[in-house]
Design a protein that fits this description.
alpha+beta, two-stranded antiparallel ribbon, 6 strands, 50% helix, 20% strand, elongated
Length: 177
Amino acid sequence: MPYGRAVLLSNWLVVDITLDAQSEMTASTTKALIPRSLMFGSLGLFACSLALPAYSIGCGGVFPGIFALLLGPIDLLALHLPWVANPLLLFSWLALRKHSSVPALALAVLAAGAAAMFWFGENKVVIAGASCSSKYIVLSGYFVWLMSIGTQIVAAATSLALGQGSEMSGEAHVESI
């Protein structure tokens, strides 16, 4: 039984929308979409950060984010720990996808902490055989990567605030895409 009616007029287009009490899109489903949308926003920002220039070193040129991601494990040998934020962020996405808000939030905050470690300590690069030693200079890709982590924190916190902790009821559950 319809309980509302809306008509949209736009030049030659007339759309008649009838709202039904048993509509597929319930309020709880809409609430479940908010953290999911934020998580996809985080994924999108991360993908953009891979294409953007992430860092530069004085005598070695500019490196895009994909290089930072792929070559980052080598930096772990030099105790450059910010790269650890990548797997932490990945596990946070997976936890939120499984509707585990608390672990997702904890992992995202740990990822932010790991990414922030770039600003502390010695960030010098020594290139074997080169006559220069230079510091890393962060570029736009790094900041987009940080925004990706921040967006995931907001997604997990929103999921937690909406009561979508470790388990969700069947009605509010949004199927995986």
